[in-house]
Amino acid sequence: MSTHAPTHEDAFEAHHGHSHGHEAGHGTFKSYVTGFVLSVILTAIPFWLVMAEVIDSPVLTAVIIMALGAIQIVVHMIFFLHMNTRSEGGWTMMALIFTIVLVAIALSGSLWVMHHLNANMMPMSPEMMKNMP
Amino acid sequence: MTELHTDYMQEGKAPTFYLEEEHHPEGSTMLGFWLYLMSDCLIFAVLFATHAVLGRNYAAGPSPADLFDLPLVAVNTSMLLFSSITYGFAMLQVERYEKKATLFWMAVTALFGIAFVSLELYEFAHMIHEGAGPQRSAFLSSFFTLVGTHGLHVTSGIIWMFVLMAQVAKHGLIPENKRRLMCLSMFWHFLDVVWIGVFSFVYLMGVLG
């Protein structure tokens, strides 16, 4: 460990210099701090909006929360996960886009179908509700 | 036949029946792990969809506004956010081959992760104690499934963190360990991304009603 390791690691360092340039990008101190600061801001705003009840309209607040959440996810993707269109020859991005499409179908489809199911249910009186099995 | 064969040998053109080992950039592991994360993302998407459908069915039981303690959730969120940046610092130390600093930041990350899971377990225990367990209503069933699945992931990440700390302590920052650290980095940041969805959609929009 004591004598062997440093030369060993130096060799890896030399190796590292020319071989990893095309891999999934590594962050820098600056990029991590930038991502962190942006995340803190993007987290604090929605919590403040809800806890201090800043906006009267719940719908508008909900829209803002979801928009800020979406922006924060993109911030995390760029600054923490180092996503870009070049890593792995673009395949990570392809997989991500495919997943987003699937997620959108699963979410919107579930909500759409279940909303219609709910809307088309036979109306129930409280008495019927009480006698449910 | 033999003459021909020797000719080949003499000219140095003998066909080789093995493949030269090519230089692996170790990129395939990262892509494979990314694909795993994407499939994990689908699990969470389905649980989010379930919560979106069932999240308002209280069965005359408690609603999110009655149950959720937003300051606690805010602290919990900050724990996970801190753990994300401390793991980033650990990865920066990995790049500089600073073994001790790497282990230090990994330990800090694990501590933040443990704080997160502990706060979540405290919240769960509190809710179950109040009679708002997963069997109370459809809302609570989907809530415990979604948030519990995320908590299980974080717990696995913490165990993975300790295993990797032992690996790094024993073998140093060899390429194998660097690869594992990269995978855990993606896993850990991915869990933070999922948590953005949880606190926005489940907690904040739940309380909004």
Features:
heterodimer, A: 5 helices, 71% helix, flat, B: mainly alpha, 7 helices, elongated
Description:
The complex is a heterodimer of chains A (133) and B (209). By secondary structure, chain A is an all-alpha fold. Chain A has a domain at 27-118. Chain A is 71% helix and 0% strand. Chain A is built from five helices and no strands. In chain A, helix 2 runs antiparallel to helix 3 (58-79). Chain A is flat and about 65 Å long. Chain B has a domain at 92-202: Cytochrome c oxidase, subunit III, four-helix bundle (Four Helix Bundle (Hemerythrin (Met), subunit A)), CATH 1.20.120. In chain B, 80% of the residues lie in helices and 0% in strands. The longest helix of chain B is centred in the last third of the chain and has 34 residues, at 138-171. Classes of the chains: A mainly alpha (133), B mainly alpha (209). At the A-B interface, helix 1, helix 2, helix 3 and helix 4 of A face helix 2, helix 4 and helix 7 of B. Chain A: Heterooctamer of two A chains, two B chains, two C chains and two D chains. Chain A: It is found in: Cell membrane.
Helices and strands in order:
The complex is a heterodimer of chains A (133) and B (209).
Chain A: H1 4-19, H2 29-51, H3 58-79, H4 91-119, H5 126-130
Helix pairs in contact in A: 2-3
Chain B: H1 2-11, H2 27-54, H3 64-67, H4 70-95, H5 99-129, H6 138-171, H7 175-208
Largest interface: A-B, 55 and 53 residues
Percent of residues in helices of chain B comes to over 70%
Low-confidence runs of chain B (pLDDT<50, min 5 residues)? none
Number of strands of chain A: 0
The sequence of SSEs of chain A as H and E is HHHHH
Rg result of chain B: 25 Å
Global mean pLDDT of chain B: 90
The number of E-state strands of chain B comes to: 0
Helix count of chain A?
A: 5
In this structure, how is the largest beta sheet of chain A organized? none
Return the CATH architecture of the domain at 92-202 in chain B: Up-down Bundle
Structural class of chain A: mainly alpha
* Gross morphology of chain B: elongated
**At the fourth CATH level, what is the homologous superfamily of the domain at 92-202 in chain B?**
Cytochrome c oxidase, subunit III, four-helix bundle
